[in-house]
Specification:
mainly alpha, 9 helices, 0% strand
Length: 231
């Protein structure tokens, strides 16, 4: 079986990928930009952490600690608005990208299962920014958990459903899913909460950013190949 380029639409030829008249091009470009901007979340974490009144530990402190809105003797996050806004933005970017790229997924219930899971992840991630941990542990937990669970499911389903059509994407999805599940196990046994929580959380935004960038590059590569045929 001939493997297709990274997440290139099944009905789209190389010429179509670089054709400005391609009806999906604007939507795919918008979705690609949205997912690629996921890298900005990591910058928001770093900026917020460096502004802490006490020393923030990426090994021992949780991601949610960056979003706390009140200071205690042991932790104070002056730029909590940056962190909470980053949660909301990442959630919205997740949804925008999933909807924009929906035609690149297997059609039917599998397509809408992935999109529905992405919407759940996006809404849950955004809710994390609206309900910081110091406003109530239960409410914060309820905001976080849907994304915590769904992120693993969506990556596993992508790895399974894309295995025969887009092997490279499937392998990339499987790697990210494995990393996240490993982090979940390590988090459950209480090993370095700051590190293990990031092993759980980072794989999906990383998958989105890398995949979004790759999809945006594909039409450019196709256009270059098309031009070189006539040189």
């Amino acid at each position: 079986m001939t493997e297709q380029p990274l997440l290139e639409p099944r009905r789209q030829t190389d010429a179509g990928a670089g054709d400005p008249s391609n009806p999906h091009r604007f939507r795919h470009t918008t979705a690609g930009i949205a997912w690629t901007l996921g890298f900005a979340y990591l910058l928001a974490e770093l900026v917020t952490a460096t502004a802490w009144k006490t020393a923030y530990s990426f090994r021992h402190d949780t991601i949610s600690d960056l979003g706390i809105t009140a200071c205690t003797p042991s932790m104070c996050s002056p730029l909590h608005l940056v962190m909470n806004a980053a949660f909301v933005a990442l959630g919205l970017l997740t949804i925008v990208g999933a909807i924009g790229f929906r035609d690149l997924l297997p059609h039917g219930r599998r397509q809408w299962s992935i999109v529905a899971l992405a919407v759940i992840i996006g809404l849950s991630t955004a809710a994390t920014g609206f309900f910081p941990s110091n406003d109530g542990a239960v409410v914060h937990f309820l905001a976080v958990m849907p994304a915590f669970v769904s992120r693993h499911i969506v990556l596993i389903l992508l790895a399974i459903w894309l295995w025969n059509q887009r092997r490279l994407v499937a392998m990339w999805s499987a790697l990210c899913a494995s990393t996240g599940l490993t982090g979940t196990v390590l988090l459950a046994i209480g090993l370095q909460v700051g590190i293990t929580e990031r092993l759980v959380f980072y794989p999906l935004p990383t998958w989105m950013a890398v995949t979004g960038a790759a999809i945006m590059i594909n039409p450019l590569r196709a256009a270059v190949r098309q031009r070189t045929r006539y040189i």
